[in-house]
Specification:
Elements (H helix, E strand, L loop, with lengths): L10 H14 L5 E9 L6 E7 L6 E6 L17 H4 L19 E3 L4
Parallel strand pairs: 1-4
Antiparallel strand pairs: 1-2, 2-3
């Protein structure tokens, strides 16, 4: 599926986003990717997801270009902070190694 002329998000890019999330929060057991989109007005792209199959932990990440999802180096801070602090924010550096094998990931179709 193409989104306004840009390619869709790959499994590798989704793994990178999952890595950012798992690196940023200690209690992530499951990530379900819900939607990938491009904002026609701004040109930004975003991906929405749900953590631990809990509707309270629905959020998303918006970036300027899809290529920003090409690296697994990064961390995220999800809002609202008082909701996501229940996942226990970590103090990991943006290149801290994480093991995605411990997290169930439901991907968007490639």
């Amino acid at each position: 599926m193409e989104i306004n002329g840009s390619k869709k998000i790959s499994i590798e890019q989704q793994n990178n986003v999952a890595t950012w999330i798992v690196r940023s929060y200690d209690n992530v057991k499951k990530i379900t990717f819900l939607k990938f989109y491009q904002d026609e007005k701004t040109g930004t792209v975003g991906i929405n997801f749900k953590i631990n199959n809990d509707d309270r932990f629905k959020s998303g990440i918006v970036v300027d270009t899809i290529s920003e999802f090409d690296t697994n180096v990064g961390i995220v801070g999800l809002s609202p902070i008082n909701t996501f602090e229940k996942l226990v924010p970590s103090n990991n550096k943006k290149d801290y190694l994480v093991d995605l094998k411990k997290v169930e990931i439901n991907y968007l179709e490639e």
